[in-house]
Amino acid sequence: MTAGIIGATGYAGAELVRLLSGHPKIDNLMLSSVSFKGDRIEDIYLNFQGVVSKQLVEAEEVIEKSDVVFSALPHAVGEQYAADCMQKNRHFIDLSADFRFDDDEKTYSEWYGKNYKYPQLHKKSIYGLPELNREKIKEMASKEKLIIGNPGCYPTGALLGIYPAAKEIAAVDSSPVIINAVTGISGGGREPVQSFHYCECADSVTPYKIASHRHSPEIERQFAFMSEPGANVPVSKIIFTPHLAPMNRGILSTIYIPLSDKWRTSTQKPATVEINNLVTRIHDHYSQFYKGEPFIRILPKGAVAATNRVRHSNYCDISLHVDMNGSTLIVITAIDNMIKGAAGQAIQNMNIIYDFDEKMGLELIPMVF
Q: Are 184 and 89 part of one and the same domain?
């Protein structure tokens, strides 16, 4: 099977090249890049020397000669390629935001400053968070070629932490869910930007785009669907603040979820029996909820999720805690922003589309150091 990658020389594109080159079902890659057209991928990323040797060609040739096409381009670029893929009867997996809002053009336009060029395409696309939409992806792919809006990196870590709590544990009609997330510098992409220079980032953790990050409406929208399937508006507020940390990769999300009356305790003392019992109940709930999920790891009680234990893998580690007053669930999730937050999740979606083993090509043990 031939996999095509449009935008193969960005960070996410290069990770797709690396992972797909070792996928058992992929025997050929077609790669394109506007910036490096005519060059060879192994001359741009020297880690591919002697392993992957491919010339970068036009996107149209990639679509023509591929069975499935991945787009690792910025937003507002991929729609035309999606249209071309549908015309050529190719599955299309988009790593930008263009297909993350389905047919909600209003929200997309408000946050990304662009209108849909092909509104009809968005009626046949699906949000590609496998743990949420696996069965829908399978059903749609069995009927026709599919467009998948691969989730953003921040929303992936946040939503996987929220999902088991959304329908029962969370008090969704009261206080907001608060998400503080820290990302590595690779999240800013390959193009040089002053705020991502070494002297700007080293020895400093900095919040950015406070109350204005484009991933906020994506998180809110999917949280609404998790809480009330088919809902058009969020059932609770989301307060999301991203931070930049001096590390190459990874996202650590600390999520504060107000507990519903059924789950909260009345104790006012730290480390009480009641709180320990509550943590056990919540831990059991999350473990059962994600039972059988190949890339979700609910850590043992007392352990704390950390980015170094998921590095270069498609895992999402989740640790569960309760505040000393017994009123707030504290969920910590860790993912690799380039793998589970981008390229790995895209390949996971491809595996679902073709009914491959979902772990295929992604059975990577994390690199702790």
A: no
